[in-house]
Amino acid sequence: MSSEEFEKLHEMYRSLYEELKLIPERALKSHGEERKKLVRTFDERHGEAEEVLQGMEEELRGAPSSYKNAMGAKLRLYRRDLGKLQRDMKNSASGFSSSSQTVQGSQQSIYSSQNQQSTHLQSQRALLLQGTESLNNASQSIERSQRIAAETDQIGTDIIEELGEQREQLDRTRNRLENTGENLSRSRKVLRAMSRR
């Protein structure tokens, strides 16, 4: 599909599913210790299958968008099939004799625990998505700040250049005033000399 790891997990899941789907019918036909053993085996394999599906979901998150729809559809189908097997096993387990009710109670506890784990994972995913959105918003805010800083820097550079030009003009004006002052001094000297004569 999209990655070698996803394909490996897919093969592992198919192998576990093939083993799991035979257990409910066998449990229905068995009794006593044999049935308890089948229930334990089902629980172990079901837990392994859940872990494999979680691994596939992680691979899905990093997959290219062109593969995500097909991979997501496959995962939903696998979860549905696994849930159906779990219900079948529960129905098979409900055929236990009264002496086996404690096993049935522990089965229900396991199913409840798995549901709680699934709910916890969903809330963690929601938090992760919320965190990602906050991070994206922060990144956009930083980009806007950088643009404003660059514009401010450009304005500052323009002002400095303009002030430099004004300083040059002031220097030239001061030089002209100094020359004018010198000319006036010379003119006064000439006028004094002429008045003496």
In short:
With about 200 residues, this protein is mainly α. It has helices at about 5-20, 25-30, 30-60, 65-95, 100-195. It has a domain at about 1-95: t-snare proteins (Methane Monooxygenase Hydroxylase, Chain G, domain 1, Up-down Bundle), CATH 1.20.58.
Characterization of the model:
With 197 residues, this protein is mainly α. The protein has a domain at 1-95: Methane Monooxygenase Hydroxylase, Chain G, domain 1 (Up-down Bundle). Helices cover 91% and strands 0% of the residues. The protein has five helices and no strands. Helix 2 (23-29) runs antiparallel to helix 3, helix 2 (23-29) packs parallel to helix 4 and helix 3 runs antiparallel to helix 4 (65-93). The longest helix is centred in the last third of the chain and has 96 residues, at 101-196. The radius of gyration is 42 Å and the shape is rod-shaped. The N and C termini lie far apart (115 Å).
